[in-house]
């Protein structure tokens, strides 16, 4: 992932966007990320809307916290429950 100090971003935004390729550019201010330029070339509108929705991000965060606590179900357990 590329980083760019915000104070040093002197080119027009279109130039940065044109050089994204598959790697995003994270804009930082004093090592603190403040924004990102990400290619949306292969992203559909629904995926973009969902990934930026606060409710969806809360669900993902809760799932990460459950996994960190070890509150998970193995594949084998899932298969037993579903079959």
Can you tell me about this structure?
The protein is of the alpha+beta class. It folds into two domains: 1-41; 43-83, no CATH class. The protein is built from four helices and three strands; from the N terminus they run βαββααα. The protein has helices at 13-18, 45-51, 54-69, 75-82; strands at residues 2-5, 25-29, 32-37. The protein has a three-stranded mixed β-sheet with strand order 1-2-3, with no helix packed on it. The longest helix is centred in the last third of the chain and has 16 residues, at 54-69. The N and C termini lie far apart (42 Å).
Task: Look at the structure and give the mean pLDDT.
Answer: 90
Q: Tell me which oligomeric state these chains represent.
A: single chain
What count of helical segments does DSSP give?
A: 4
Biggest sheet, spatial arrangement of strands: 1-2-3
| Domain count | 2
Q: Helicity level, as a percent range?
A: 40-55%
Q: What is the total tally of β strands?
A: 3
Assign an overall shape: elongated
Pairing-aware structural class of the strands and helices? alpha+beta
Q: Which radius of gyration do the C-alpha atoms yield?
A: 19 Å
Q: SSE order, as H and E? A: EHEEHHH
* Beta-strand proportion: 15-25%
- N- to C-terminal distance: 42 Å
Low-confidence stretches: none
Largest sheet geometry: 3 strands, mixed
Topology:
Blueprint: E1 2-5, H1 13-18, E2 25-29, E3 32-37, H2 45-51, H3 54-69, H4 75-82
Parallel strand pairs: 1-2
Antiparallel strand pairs: 2-3
């Amino acid at each position: 992932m590329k980083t760019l100090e915000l104070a040093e971003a002197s080119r027009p935004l279109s130039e940065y966007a044109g050089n994204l390729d598959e790697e995003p550019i994270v804009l930082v201010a004093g090592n603190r990320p403040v924004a990102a330029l990400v290619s949306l070339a292969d992203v559909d509108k629904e995926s973009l809307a969902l990934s930026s929705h606060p409710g969806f991000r809360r669900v993902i965060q809760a799932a990460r916290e459950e996994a960190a606590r070890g509150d998970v179900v193995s594949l084998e357990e899932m298969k037993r429950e579903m079959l």
